[in-house]
Amino acid sequence: MKKINIFLLGYGQVGKNFFRLVQEKQDFCRRKYEHHICVSTVLNSRGGLYTASEKKGEGMFTGSALGSKLEEHPDYVSGMDFENVLEYPDLDILVDCTPSDIRTGKPSLDYTHRALNRGMHVVTASKGPLVVDFAGIRTNAEKNSVCLGMSGATAAALPTLDVALRSLAGAEILGIEGILNGTSNYVLTRMSEGMTYAQALNEAQRKGMAEPNPEQDVEGWDTAAKILIITNAVMGTSYTLEDMRVEGITNISSSLWKEAKKTGHKLKLIGRFSPQRKTQNLETRLSPIHPSHSLYGVDGAAKGITFFTDTMNTVTVTGGKSDPRGAAAALLKDVLNIYRG
Ligand SMILES: NC(=O)c1ccc[n+]([C@@H]2O[C@H](COP(=O)([O-])OP(=O)(O)OC[C@H]3O[C@@H](n4cnc5c(N)ncnc54)[C@H](OP(=O)(O)O)[C@@H]3O)[C@@H](O)[C@H]2O)c1
């Protein structure tokens, strides 16, 4: 039985769900994969908890002992930081659930490199470090012979990288198109049914699908970050946001809607990689989608991705839970797959 000690960085919506999921699935993972998965360290921005395996046997906090507020745990150490944790023994994987700043990569760009340098695998939900320094992180992981799990940052429960890197091995990828952001897709779907932008966004916020500040979603940056990371991971490229044309859904002209309706198209926010184009081959654009397109039926908060290949034709994946628990499940998948080879 392989014991896997996890350092969980960030205890917000995704971090809490990840912690709970590990507890919930612990017996299942022992039985099915012969892995004993433990969260032995948890850190938020003000402090954290560390359970040495020799001190507490299983090296895992119990559900009752770790509630929704980290600070309320009796062993919480205020001021404990990343530096302190890196000195602890027995840490196999960093699971990064800190916020995504796609302009600076903070807070976890530096943490990612330091964990890799210490020989830890990194599984991340944060797009920031991967957008800002994909090439550096990839090289560093290779140098230290450790793995990077990026599913949580690339549409989470919708399998994107797993499909491209494993299921399409040997095929040349001729293009990628994705509906990668549930909030903007929901707003567009409701607008196509007659709502105004403000009404649709308001409804998405009321239903808890959109953030109180939905800027990253509706202005296209979340989609841009995801297609950028997916492209770099799949194609071995080193694109940055500066290489991209990015548009959102905040200013759609009524003539565009009318034209789309008249010709039987749907308007979708598409993250797209088109390698045959000489310039601007990576973009996030509002695009009219014909009924024959594989993403035409991806409506509401759903997501989907299509890979165009030379030998396998068009391969499309749709679905996947679009919430913090779905994101947590994608992180757990990456952890397990690292040890399954
Ligand atoms: N929410 C989703 O459905 C979803 C889906 C896919 C991917 N993601 C990605 O997952 C990540 C986490 O999202 P979330 O919704 O869980 O965010 P969140 O609720 O804001 O939680 C962020 C956590 O990170 C902690 N944190 C911030 N700076 C830190 C630092 N320097 N050191 C240690 N901890 C730090 C925060 O600590 P404090 O509590 O002390 O502030 C908080 O616990 C983001 O990158 C997001 O893009 C989210």
Plain-language structure description:
With 341 residues, the protein is α/β, with parallel strands linked by helices. The protein contains 14 helices and 13 strands. A hairpin with an 8-residue loop joins strand 10 and strand 11 (282-289). The longest helix has 17 residues, at 324-340. The chain is globular. The structure holds NADP nicotinamide-adenine-dinucleotide phosphate. NADP nicotinamide-adenine-dinucleotide phosphate (NAP) is lined by residues 9-15, 43-46, 97-100, 107, 125-127, 152, 156, 323-324, 327. NADP nicotinamide-adenine-dinucleotide phosphate (NAP) binds at residues 9-15, 43-46, 97-100, 107, 125-127, 152, 156, 323-324, 327.
Helical content band: 25-40%
Bound molecules: NADP nicotinamide-adenine-dinucleotide phosphate
The largest beta-sheet arranges its strands as: 4-3-2-1-5-6-7
Give the SSE string: EHHEEHEHEHEHHEHEHHHHEHEEEEH
**Averaging pLDDT over every residue, what do you get?**
93
Strand content: 15-25%
Structural class: alpha/beta
Main sheet makeup:
7 strands, mixed
- Give the terminus-to-terminus CA distance: 15 Å
Tally of helical segments:
14
Number of strands: 13
Shape: globular
Radius of gyration: 21 Å
**What are the segments in which pLDDT stays under 50 over at least 5 consecutive residues?**
none
